[in-house]
Specification:
It contains two helices and four strands, in the order H-E-E-E-E-H. The protein is an alpha+beta fold. A four-stranded antiparallel β-sheet has the order 1-2-3-4, with helices on one face. It is elongated, with a radius of gyration of 19 Å. The chain starts with a helix and ends with a helix.
Length: 98
């Protein structure tokens, strides 16, 4: 069974509370965080269309938030870099057609 199907089944049986899925920008991978206690999360790394998952361990709520913020910051930086490169290329292309 594919990971995405396992995740869907788990959510259907247990509800969506306590599960967060973070995509890792630029990869086909997800980090799935499941709350196991008030201040404790277990993390798993997976590709949604494959069947293997990797346990990344248990983290505190603060560590989980720090990880999420880091993932978001990296994604924003990468997207900004791509946008800047696109604008530079557009200037080059526009300049060569004039």
């Amino acid at each position: 069974m594919k990971n995405i199907d396992k995740l869907a089944k788990h959510i259907k049986e247990n509800g969506k509370n306590g599960i967060l899925v973070h995509s890792i920008y630029g990869t086909g991978q997800w980090i799935v965080a499941q709350r196991i206690e008030k201040d404790k999360w277990t993390l798993m790394l997976m590709k949604p269309m494959e069947s293997v998952t990797y346990s990344l361990g248990t983290v505190s709520h603060r560590q989980h938030l720090d990880l999420w913020e880091e993932l978001m910051e990296r994604e924003v930086k990468e997207r900004v870099t791509i946008l800047q490169r696109s604008k530079e290329l557009n200037k080059i292309v526009s300049g060569s057609t004039n």
